[in-house]
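Q: Structure for this?
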Amino acid sequence: MRRSIFAVALAALALAAGTAGAADVKMAYVGEISGSIAVSGGNFRDGVILAVEEINARGGILKEKIALTLYDTQTNPGVARSQMQKAIDGDPYVILGPIFSGNVKVTLQMVQQAEIPDFIGGEAAELTTLGSAYLFRTSFGQQIGMPKIANYIRDELKAKTVALIWVNNDFGKGGRDKLMKELAARNIKLVADVSTESGQVDFAADVVKLKAANADAVFVYSNEEECARIMREARKQGLKGPFVGDTTLLSQKTIELAAEAANGVVGHVGLTADAPIPAVTEFAQRFQKRFNYKPDHNGIKGYTAVYAVKYVTEKKIGKFDRKALAKIMHGLTITPQEEPGILMETTWDNVGEIDRISFLAEVVNGKQNISKVLPKLGK
Amino acid sequence: MADILQLLVAGLATGGIYALVAVGFTLLWQTSQTINFAQGEFVMLPAFFVLIAMGYFGLPFWPAVAVGGAVSVVVLGLLFKKWMVDPMIRHGVLPLVIATIGLAILMKEMVREFYGADAWPFPALAATTDVAVLGAVFSVQSLIILAISLAVVAALQFFLNGTRTGRCMQATAQNPTVARLLGIRVDRMILYTFLINGALVWVASLLITPIYLAKFTNGEWLGLYAFIAAIIGGFNQVRGAIVGGLLLGVVDNFAAAYISSQYRTAIPLMILIVVILFRPQGLLGRVEERTV
Amino acid sequence: MKNRRLAAGIVLAAAGVFLLVAPWGLKPYGIFILSMWAVMTIAAIGLNLTLGYAGQISLAQAAFVGIGAYITAWLTTRGWPFWPTYIFGGVSCFAVGWVLGYPALRVQHHYLAFVTLAFNTLVFLIFRNEEWLTGGIYGISNVPRPGVLGLSLNSPLAFYYFCLAHLALVSAATWWLIRSPWGRAFVALRENPIRALSLGVDTRRYTLVAFALGAGLGGISGAIYAPLVQFVDPTPFALGLSLNLLLMVVLGGSGYFFGPFLGAIVAVLLPEWLRFTQGYYLMGYAVLVILLMAFSPTGLLGLADRLTRPARRRTAGAAGVAPAAAAEGEGVR
Amino acid sequence: MSAILQVRDLRKSFGGIVAVDGVSFSVAEGEILGIIGPNGSGKSTLFNCILGQLAPSGGEVHLDGRPVTGMRPCDLNRLGVSRTFQLLQIFPQLTVRENLILAGQEHQGTMLGRLVGPRDAGLGAAAERMIGFFRLEHLADEHAGDLSYGQQKLLDVAMAFMAGPRLALLDEPAGGVNLTMLASLRERLRAINAESRSTFVVIEHNMEFVMALCTRILVLAEGRVIAEGEPAAVRSDPKVIEAYLGHS
């Protein structure tokens, strides 16, 4: 009995002591360092870290060094909320992340109430429709990606029927619902609609379903690891494809994990380290050098977000002002000429949705090849 | 038809692996009343032993596999018994159960901390080509997995029934006291079962990881399915574990394909509940007579 | 004995005072964690009744926390007042727990563990898949916080005291329960069901009650969890939490009244304190569990008890930890 | 004298082994019946079948002429039938007093009543009396687990009488009890029998003890009754001697 009480005392004293430590300009990364989509979260985080280190090396933002704190949501909405609360308690200038759409959704209001600009990695369509004035994407929402994919399936693959396999979480379901609409609009038939678990390992049965459907094209929409497992199982069972996907299916990690099973996969990529753009290639090299692995699109997302903040704060506001930052970001376009760190010309609209050029890619012997560059929607 | 055949083969392949894991599980239970909640992690780990042997010590694949096997048998067999089971079993079944839950956490966290939270590709034992039979395309990999796991289990069965040591082990399993009276070196026999378990999980790991990819969370479902297989088949029967494993793999696949992929995990669990409630000794198990 | 009691009393009083003033130094997050501690402790107390006192292992406590949380979230977001939903949550968990208790009459120990484990996973799948009811993976957000006697509990501090009050209430009730003849019957059930049966103890009914009460407390803790986090989704109620609660109870000392409090501290508060240890914390936690099971199956309090109690022969009747006598009872009505 | 307990042709077999093979006997109100027999002659199994601890394979058990075959032990116990076990069975984590209260609490009031009612279920006084009766005063608040074996044995018996049973089945009450303790135990049992006219059935190996305590003796061998009667008569019965010698 005694023991228990001492433990309480110690623990809470620690709590009281724990929350201290002021810094120059605070940034908080709240994202998926562990859990089912740790890969994406890790990439995003390292992108942020790289940018922060570069900026600090050159004297920081407005002569102030960036103090970055990391919070792990464990890909668990409950934890995400508490970690976001913790981050907000730390009173950061901006928040980066989460990447998992579900976590973005549950933390969105807290962030809005705290009036802290939040650069998210989530791509679920609905996020920008929830009316937060402090939410900014770092990559396309599905409502921008999916039409491009649907077009690709119709125009390039000339497919009449599509089999769809998707992961049953906010991200997967959002994308699947969006794509089904777009396909219907182009009267392409959906002949199989296979839902899978996040973190699922055995896809034998699911692939059999896809085979049974024998569609003109198979659309794979899941997180990197599951994508890889699906491709391996598909190869194992001799499912022919063609396999169409979005950024995750063609991401570096998926290709590494799926090995030769990934070859021949085609699709639309919002962002990629293999983009035929010098700035991006150099970024990829710096990233590789720092963390010795090849960044995927999430690395770029995190990296560019930090530079966007730097640019706006220094060139547009001249002081650290969250409200102003959020205001100016809406409807802003940043070009690499103005800020090299942005890598590609990027526009945020009035709900924080993003617009960039994007790419059609194909995996050829374990490497992602950009076959075509699609222009910004705004042009 | 072709689908059904393919599902059957795929199911049997995964089922074979469940069987391997479940057999080890029941062996431990029989000889030492050990319920190993970390059995799933036991399967997750050997793959990383191999990866480490390749990555850090630059061994080629097959030698690394051998090293992995040795390490598994020592760490997951010998040390597991000496450092965990022996000091704890005297407290009864439950403390050990809880300790193995702790062990599961420990293993996962160590892999995550020292190797990484990502999934890692793992070389396949055999080329990933397919063969077409009766219109159905089977992957050589599935067939090989099935073949190997069945071969291993068969070998084990032969060992248990056909050799003196094996029969001693069974005697130990059935009644340690009597076995001791018969002059069987019970402790050694128990140790053997732990070593065998170490080897079994190693094989399972090699078979499953090329498909699942090496990740620290791989054990979670595998362990659970092994339990289910073991209980369905009969907790005190090696044969039972095999049947249970194969059955589970097939049922799981057909359920996912024809009932609901959203509820696929539910079906095995329901079977489990039904079996426990209405045939606690399992499909092939025998009733353990108890008196007051 | 006498001054042991006295010391305990003083320490308890100190603890009470501490819990009252602690949040004043804390940011919202710190308060949130303390509140979470209170909520989890309630759930653990419930499990302690089932496991620690009645000796029935259950791996379904998370499911009950979930059911309670979902009921409250679902109803309050549809305009119901808090209290009815709260009671409804607790009662329905009690009922479900009662039903889940029936397997416990047929099977024991590890088999029971697997039945409850399966139940937990099934419940999780329902939360996850029945979107029309539970909101599926999107969950239920914006769960309102209740007001008490007209004053709002929206501030973290106010809600912390709300949770604390609950904990106090539950503790008091449990304290009464285990001191009543029921508590005695539970212990009898745990230590030697056969003998208990021969003394007229209706072990069947007490087993069901033990399950139902544990479940009911799980439901109550869930009913508070929902407005605390203000968002309910399936993830937290997976098997993981059940295992965690089990570890909390065993770690603190199953069968000891204050076991769950201590266990919850180790599982909920300590990680915050030891944040700097990052991934190593869980490893340490795991190692601690293993060591305790090897050297003191009755948990930290069992250890403390042994150390402070004047040296005497204490027959090993490890609380909730399959004492030899109880093992004999397997399979007997 | 009316028979309080009647056992008719009771059988129990485990798999192939027949442990109890058609045993019949009856016990009259107020008598002390001893059951003896070599190890493995089915004595304890017989008890367990009578008391519903095990489901008998065949035969009937009647209490006051009412069939109670296979009735659950707790219900039977509430009808006033209590027992002790061959291996001593107490609750080491409870104090002596609480062991005794537990033994009585389920015999009165409703379940809910026990929850809201007083801690000692109104049995404090009764427990005190029982403690005094078995001379355990100085140990009343000790954990039962801390008692000596003999003391635990006394407690075990005391629990059997806590609820004032009309019929008590004692399985080797003298087993492992030292001589002084043995004397007091026997004299306690006699006292209870005299005071409350309650009826005993006693399984015992200790011949002195049985012969001195019991009014009638039943001899079991290989699951069958081979002899029955006055202690003296039984002692000199050749079948009995044979049965014992045959096994020792």
